[in-house]
Amino acid sequence: MTRTPIPPPHRSASLPTPTPTANGSASSSSLSTTTTSTKGADVPEEQKAGWTSFIKSLAKMTGDLSSMTAPPFILSPVSLTEFPAYWCEHPQVFAQISEGKNEFERTELVLKWFICTLKGQYTTRNEKMGSEKKPLNPVLGELFYGVWPDVNGRGETRLIVEQVSHHPPITAYYIENKKAGVKLQGHSGQKTAFTGTAINVKQSGHAVLTVTPKNGGPEEKYLITLPKLRIEGIIWGSPYIELTDSNAIQSSTGYTAQIDYKGKGYFTGKPHSYKASISKGSKTQQSYEGQWTGVSYIGGSKGPVFFDAHLPKEEVSVKPIEEQGEWESRRLWDKVAKGIKGGNYDLAGVEKSRIENDQRQRRKDEAAASSNWQHAHFTYVDSDPEYQSLAALLHDKLTPAHEDGYIFKGNI
C-alpha cells in the first residue's frame, strides 16, 4: 500500500526520551546556574511573550499535558520515533552481553548496558542544543530504520522503529545483533503533568531483552521496566532532565537488578546519581553507585569502575534522506527540521501544520471507511506473555501483573 505521510497535531508538552534520539549532560554547575536564574532568562528575546503565555497555560492545566503546544524555540528537529536508537549507541556493550560466563555475569552486563543508555536518552540534548528540547510528535505509521555496522567482529546491529499509536502516542522498536545473539523488543509512551515548577513524566511500556549465551547455555530473557523522569528548569526556559524513583531489570534466571535514582543532594551530592544492586531471592550479590552521566563504581565510590559514560558513543547510520521512503522520520520531517535548525520558525510552522492537517484528514477518511491503520512491523497483544512471566518473578507490588505489548512480526 502506498502511504502518504501524515503526522499528528503537535500536542505534548513532555520532553521525553525512548527511546529512542539527540545529545548531552547538564553539569552540576549548569544546574546550579539554572536554579538561581531569573525567570525566562534563557528564553530568546523574541520568544519571551510566547514563553510567558506557555508557562501561564501550564499553571492552569490539570492532568495530562497532551493538549499543550510548546513554543517554537524549545522544539527539537528530531522526531520521537528516533529515540529508540539511544538503546544501542554503545553497540559493543550491547553485543558483549552474551559473552558473560554465567548467569550473574550476564545480568551484570545487562545492567552495565542499561546504564550506558541513560545519558543519551535523557541528557545529551543539553550539550548539543543548549537545553532539553521537545521532540517532534510522530505520525501514526512513521518509521525509522538504522544500523550499527560490524566493527572488530562484534556483528551488525539493526534497528526497526514504528509509531504504532497516536492517541495515546506509543513507539515500538526492535533491535538485534544476530551474530552476538542479543535482541531487544519494546514499546514506550509518556504521561505528563506539571507540578508548579517541573514537568513529571511517567513512562509507560517495557522492553524485553533476549540473550543466547556464547557458552551454549539456554536462552535468557530480561524484563526492563522504565524509569520516571522530572523536567526541571521550565520556569527559566532552560529545561533539563533528572530521573526519579526506580526501575528494575528482571532475568528469567532469577536475578534482579534494582536501580534507584536521585538528583543533586542525595547519595553523592551530584546530579544524575544512582544506586543499583543485583540480587537473587533475598540475597544481594553486588551493589553499584555513581552518576549515570559520568562514572559509576562497583561496591561503592572507592571500588572498581563499573561504567564511564564519557565513553564515545556511536550514532546510528541511516540511508540518505533522498533514498528514504515517504514514511521514514528524517524524510517526513526534513523541512520542519531545517526550519528549526535555521531558526526559521515560520517555515517550520507551515510545514508542521501541513503534516498535522494531512494526519487529521487520514483519520477522518479511515473513520468514514470504518477501517483501521495496519501496523507494518508489529502485532499488538493485549497481554504480553513474556512480560507476564518475568513480572511474576519481580515480586514488585508496583509492577502490574499484565501489560499489553507490540510483538515484532518477522526477520530484521
Automatic annotation (TrEMBL):
<feature type="region of interest" description="Disordered">
    <location>
        <begin position="1"/>
        <end position="45"/>
    </location>
</feature>
<comment type="similarity">
    <text>Belongs to the OSBP family.</text>
</comment>
<dbReference type="Pfam" id="PF01237">
    <property type="entry name" value="Oxysterol_BP"/>
</dbReference>
<dbReference type="InterPro" id="IPR000648">
    <property type="entry name" value="Oxysterol-bd"/>
</dbReference>
<dbReference type="InterPro" id="IPR018494">
    <property type="entry name" value="Oxysterol-bd_CS"/>
</dbReference>
<dbReference type="GO" id="GO:0005829">
    <property type="term" value="C:cytosol"/>
</dbReference>
<protein>
    <recommendedName>
        <fullName>Oxysterol-binding protein</fullName>
    </recommendedName>
</protein>
<feature type="compositionally biased region" description="Pro residues">
    <location>
        <begin position="1"/>
        <end position="10"/>
    </location>
</feature>
<feature type="compositionally biased region" description="Basic and acidic residues">
    <location>
        <begin position="351"/>
        <end position="367"/>
    </location>
</feature>
<dbReference type="GO" id="GO:0008142">
    <property type="term" value="F:oxysterol binding"/>
</dbReference>
<dbReference type="InterPro" id="IPR037239">
    <property type="entry name" value="OSBP_sf"/>
</dbReference>
<feature type="compositionally biased region" description="Low complexity">
    <location>
        <begin position="20"/>
        <end position="38"/>
    </location>
</feature>
<dbReference type="GO" id="GO:0016020">
    <property type="term" value="C:membrane"/>
</dbReference>
<feature type="region of interest" description="Disordered">
    <location>
        <begin position="351"/>
        <end position="370"/>
    </location>
</feature>
<dbReference type="GO" id="GO:0120009">
    <property type="term" value="P:intermembrane lipid transfer"/>
</dbReference>
